[in-house]
Amino acid sequence: MISSRGAFLELVEKATSPLLPSGHEDMATNLDVCDLIRSKSVTPQHAMQILKQRLLHTNPNVQLLALHLTDLCIKNSGMPFLKEVAGPEFMDAVTSMVRERISLPVPVRTQTLQYLQNWRYLAEAHPQDLGYMASAVRALETEHGITLPSAEAHVVAAAQALTDTLIAPDWTDSSVCTRCRADFGTFLRKHHCRNCGRVFCYKCSSKTMALPWYSIKEPVRVCDGCFKRKGPIPASKTAVPRTEASASNTTSKEDDDLARAIALSLQESSRPTEPSIERRKAEGTDADDDPELAAAIAASLREWEASSQPPPPPTSNTPSVPIPAPTATFTTPPPAVPTSSPTPMALQTRTQRPLQMDASDYDHILTFYQTVKTSSAPWKERVPTDGVPVPVQNMHTKAAASRAKLARHLDVGHRRLRELTQLHETLTDVVRLYDRLLDAQWETPPVSQRPTHPNAQDEWHTVPSAPPSLAAPTMLPSAPMDADGRVPATHTTHVSSHTPPADPASEALLIDL
């Protein structure tokens, strides 16, 4: 905004430069000034103050150029700028200059009175917004006796059209996005569309484009709807009804809607209610009343109990051998235990009862809501004397029945939610146990990968136990041998009376030693 103010001041000084020849306006610069005001690059109040300073300049040429520029801005910058110009700050300064400045040059005085008369006709076309401008100019004639020239013909003929300039709409505020209804907060900021003025989130206003119909030449942020429209927003969507006629039209429309809703409710009340009663009786809301649902739940519980039991240990036909057991409990994954899958009847039973309401129930509730919610309904004023109308009472009866049905649906939904939550917790526990089994399997190596060399350590630093064998021969102390390599009987030592007889292999080992 600061840079826009500086650019606006430079353009105004350029358009009203004392170096310009008298009677020669820089129309391109003047239109640029109007575009800056119209596009709201500068505030209307700031623009009015800059133009007022140039009008009160001491150089007559600057004053004449400022008068032409102000008149062009009044006709092309929109109603917000017109309201600032028509205010006391600007009009009192201009009228006091005409009344009190004696040294005011004649051309400047004549042009000022002419423009004031033209602006008076423009103000009379909008008395509610520009009433002070018309009264200030009228006071010059009545109170100060200043004769004003007649207004120009084209100004009188097109006073209304000259002020109806298409400008960017004012920004509206809201706590939610206009398009997606998302709530604004710390992490979701507000963004305004420069074309329609509504507030959006960043997702719904990520497009940019120029708005030449508002004199906005640079790409600015717009919403998705305005980006697709490629044009100004229709006046019917932004206009606010102010007259009594529009208020009466709105009231009549609401009365027509109420009459239509009452007629529909009367038609529905005249229909036979037997099918709905039969459907209500046939509709179950509890597992105890539905044997198929109870059977499906019981089957699911039996399947869960069967799957939670530990599988039987695998049997083997190999003979038992005294081999030392490894440190881990599992060396191979346990065999899969086939479980019975749910039958098609059970699956059909679980999904055959959707939690959906009939369209008639929605109609009953919404019709009753809209009828009672309407604040300006004529029948509400007659309730203290005449009571609640019969059609409205019928709407209440139907809405109450639909509400009871909705409560039953809600109860069934909560029960199903609890059942599914329990099944989910059970499945979580089973998966956790299975993960522990897998961890135990990976921590212990298979038996086939263990080293077979005696007294050798594998990569897990475990020493396998030696298999049972025959008793090792007892080492005897060295004794003298004869020439045939035999030990004399006198030197034979018996270690134990229970020592088994040596076999030929043991004798050969002793001979070798």
Give a short synopsis of this structure.
The protein is mainly alpha-helical and 513 residues long. It has 21 helices and 4 strands.
Describe the structure.
This is Vacuolar protein sorting-associated protein 27. It is a peripheral membrane protein. With 513 residues, this protein is mainly alpha-helical. The protein has 21 helices and four strands. The protein has helices at 2-15, 27-38, 44-55, 60-76, 79-85, 88-100, 106-124, 127-142, 153-157, 159-163, 224-229, 235-238, 244-270, 274-282, 291-308, 344-351, 359-373, 378-381, 383-386, 390-443, 504-512, and strands at residues 191-192, 199-200, 207-211, 216-222. Strands 1-2 form a two-stranded antiparallel ribbon. The chain has a two-stranded antiparallel ribbon with strand order 3-4. Helix 1 packs antiparallel against helix 2 and helix 17 (359-373) crosses helix 20. The chain is elongated, with a radius of gyration of 50 Å.
- CATH topology (level 3) name of one domain: Serine Threonine Protein Phosphatase 5, Tetratricopeptide repeat
Beta-strand portion reads under 5%
Radius of gyration: 50 Å
The global form is elongated
Low-confidence stretches: 236-248, 273-287, 315-352, 468-478, 489-499, 508-513
Mean pLDDT equals 72
Structural class by helix and strand composition: mainly alpha
Give the strand line-up of the largest sheet: 1-2
Which second-level CATH architecture of one domain applies? Alpha Horseshoe
Tally the helices: what do you get?
A: 21
Overall strand count: 4
For the sheet with most strands, the description reads: 2 strands, antiparallel
